[in-house]
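Example record

The entry below shows one chain as it appears in the dataset: sequence first, then structure tokens.
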Amino acid sequence: MAATTRTRTKKTAAKKRATRVAKRTPARKAAPAARKTAKKAVRTAQKRTAATKRTVKRTASKTVRKVAKATSPTRPNGTRPTGRRQDAIALLKQDHREVNALFKQFEQAGSGARAKKARLVESIIEALSRHAAIEELAFYPAVRREVAGSTSDVLESLEEHHVVKWLLSELDGLDPSAERFDAKVTVLIESVRHHVREEENELFPRVRARLGRERLLAIGDELRDAKPRVSTRPHPRGPDEPPANVLVAGAVGAIDRARKVGRQAVERVRDELPV
């Protein structure tokens, strides 16, 4: 009886061992395959991540180039300046030179060159409107905050801008055959040249000495970025100090540009009509 019991116990133990071995064997065989699959999945994920990073980098680079092109300043003739970064004073002086070149062309035009004078005044209006707007948005506020004793100079400059804007608004759309057309342009030229002399000989040197190149480069970036968005027409009744001028600048600029497109379309249609 005891022998029979021991035999059964041995058989039961053997069956249990066989069962355990049978259970472990598939897992052991499957483990290498599972590891291989996992490694493959990791490599695939890494490739996808790398590809995504490259795509994001390319997209970001394209976006940066598009934004830089869209926000780079345009000149009255529609061209975009090239070259290295300009500080605020260098940029404003360049505007002064370009406007003065238009003044000289007007002064040299003959009394009968009405069409040429009309085109020059249109360019002068746009150039001075943009110049005044960016100064009032970025340059004058920074000078008033950061240059001690500059408040009276800034306020005087704003008043000179105000006078110039009224003259520009009276010239805007005025027929060059009008009796006071040339007289108004002459007074405008004298006013602007006086303003430029004061800025370049008195205000600008003090600002450069106080702010330094890096700060002026930063303000120059603000001026350059604002220029394509600001008004292209004179608005003497509009605000000329923050925050009001900041709030309306974009909307007014968009309206001015739409107005210019509409005017050009009307002129094209008028030119095509039979006489």
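Notes for this example: Residues 63-82 have pLDDT under 50 and may be disordered. The longest helix spans residues 2-71.
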